[in-house]
Design brief:
Layout (H helix, E strand, L loop, with lengths): L4 H9 L14 H8 L11 H10 L7 H15 L5 H15 L2
Length: 100
Amino acid sequence: SKVSDDALAEFLSKPVEEDITTVPGIGPKAAEILAKNCENDPGIETTFQLIGKFLSLKGKGMGSKEHCDAMWFYLQAKGVNSFRAGIVHSIAERTNIMMP
């Protein structure tokens, strides 16, 4: 469940794009799963919404590992079964660049 270093580097070097499949590890199937509305959880259709979800999971006093774990478990609960760790790593690195 690891994205390639090249894919991560490319994602981090470009401006954030709306298309959620530009996030390493998210293909058409994961994009479809994330877009589904669930009870008390609206679908995620863009990279911006995915970053927003990641940021919303950062609780008070939460460290980086706990924050990334929360995102991993969120993706698991949504039904994303492939590349969860790679997706979390990509979004965490992207937000770290945006907000060090």
